[in-house]
Specification:
Length: 115
């Protein structure tokens, strides 16, 4: 969305992206304070769980192409958290926030493929 004011214009998309980025950083910082030691691991859980990867790809002879993408990083983190007995709620919150970003990435990927 653009707002034109004479010779200048305001692009709203970068502003919204910056605000969302700031909110994510604030939440991660606040959740990292809940851990007694190694508070930086909250950021690692978030970054790993945002990873999305294609697990299936198919092409036909007439040129159609399909890829199935999944939030693979979140699945890996979830398996690790379930297997680990010292599970902290802040780590789960950070990985769920990473899943939200991963789903947003999936929407962007499929939107580019379809349109």
């Amino acid at each position: 969305m653009n707002f034109e004011f004479g010779n200048t214009s305001i692009h709203l998309s970068p502003i919204i992206t910056f605000v969302i980025f700031a909110v994510i950083l604030y939440l991660l910082w606040r959740w990292s304070k809940e851990l007694e030691n190694r508070s930086f691991t909250i950021f690692l859980y978030f970054m790993i769980s945002t990873y999305t990867a294609p697990i299936f790809s198919r092409s036909t002879s007439n040129g159609d192409h399909f890829e199935l993408w999944v939030p693979l990083g979140f699945i890996i983190i979830l398996v690790y958290l379930v297997a680990n007995k010292k599970n902290h709620p802040a780590k789960m919150k950070a990985s769920l926030l990473g899943l939200a970003v991963g789903i947003y990435k999936l929407i962007e990927i499929y939107r580019d493929l379809l349109f």
